[in-house]
Amino acid sequence: MYIETLSELKGEKLLKWEAFLSQAKLEADKNSTQTVLIFEDEEIIATGSRQENILKCIAVSPSRQGEDLTSKIITELRKGAFEEGFSHLFLYTKSENEHIFSSLFFYTVAKTDKVLLMENRQGAVTSFINSLNKEAAENAGACVMNCNPFTLGHRYLIETASKMCNHLYVFVVSEDKSEFSFKDRLEMVKRGTKDLENVTILETGPYLISSATFPTYFLKDRDNAEETHCELDIEIFARHFAPRFSITKRFVGTEPLSKLTDKYNESLKKLLPQKGIEFIEIPRLEISDIPVSASRVRELIKENKTAELEKIVPKSTFDYIKEVY
Question: Nearest-5° angle of CA 90, CA 93, CA 98?
Fold first, then answer.
C-alpha cells in the first residue's frame, strides 16, 4: 500500500479516480488543488480531494473499510491545507458519513437528505454570526446579494423590501471570486443604502453562497446548478442566520437572465415556507424595458460607456467606480 498526493490528475490515474468515485456514488469534482490517492497493487482503494480549504470527494473501497484509511486521507489533506495557509477547513460529504468525520474532529454546520457540510472548528458558524454584533429585530426580513457591482436594481429591491418589514438585513456575499472585490462591493452597498434607516448591511462570511455552501455559483458553467447545493445553502440560512436575527421573510428579485439564480429562487420558494420563512419575490427593475443587471454594468465599464452607465447605477456607485477604478 502506498500514498500519492497530486495537484492535478490526468491520464490513466484520472480515469481510475473517476471510476472509483462513480462506484462510491460520488461526483468526480475536478475543481481541486490537491488529490490524495491510496493504492494497493496499482488499484485505488481510497481517495480524497481539496479545493483550497474545502475537503471533498472522499471515498474508501467497501472491502477496505475499518482500516483507518479515511483518517490517512484527512491527515494528508489537512497537511496540504495548512502548508498553503488554510486553517479553517470545510468538509463536503454524504449525510450518512456524519459519524465518521465527527470522530475526526469535524463538526456539522448543516445537512440535507443528500449532503453534509462540516468544519474543523466547533461552533465556528455560531461565533461568526455573533461577531456580526447586531441585535435581532421583530418582523425582520433579509436579502442575500452579490452586488457585482451595486446597481439601481439592487437599490430598488432593497428599498422595496425595507418597506415590507420592520428591519431588513442585507447580507453581501463575502467570497472574493467576483470581478469586484468583496471590500468594494460591500462599500458600494453601504454607500448606496445609507439613507435607509431600517436597513443593516452584513457580510455572509464563508457560510452563505460560498465555495463551501454553494460551489455551483462560482463555476463557469453556472446554468448547471445542482439542487443539492441550493438546498444546503438554504438550510444554513434557515438553521443559523434566520433564528439569530428573527428573520421571517426573505426577499429576492425576479431573475430573467440567469438560469442558475432562477433555479435557486425556485428552491427558496419551495423550501423556505417549510421552515417558517416567507418567500417574497419582487419584480426586477427595468429601465427602457430592459432589466437592470450587474453584468450589463460590467460590460458598460469595459466599453467605457459612461453616459449609459450613469442611467443604471446609483450616483454613489458611479462615483465609487470613478474613484477606485
Answer: 90
Task: Say if strands 54-60 and 43-51 run parallel, antiparallel, or are unpaired.
Answer: antiparallel
Pick from 193, 323, 321: nearest CA to 309: 321
How many C-alpha atoms does 225 have within 13 Å on its Cβ side? 21
What's the whole-model pTM score?
A: 0.92
CA distances from 144 to 23, 154, 192 (A): 37, 11, 16
Extract the C-alpha cell encoding 271: 423550501
The rounded Cα 46 to chain-centroid distance in angstroms is 28
pLDDT in tens, 131-141: 997 777 888 99
Single-letter amino acid, residue 29: D
CB under 8 Å to 232, separation ≥6 — which residues?
Answer: 110, 111, 112, 115, 117, 213, 214
Strand partners, 201: 170
Q: Which three cell numbers stand for residue 183?
A: 471590500
Beta bridge partners of 278: 249
> Residue 223: pLDDT band by 50, 70, 90 thresholds?
very low
Mean pLDDT of 34-63: 96
Kindly tell me the sign of the dihedral angle through the C-alpha atoms of 187, 128, 276, 110.
Answer: positive
Q: Residue 5: how many CA atoms within 13 Å on its side-chain side?
A: 13
Q: Which phi-psi region, left, alpha or beta, contains residue 244 (left: φ > 0; alpha: ψ -120 to 50)?
A: alpha
C-alpha cell at 251: 426577499
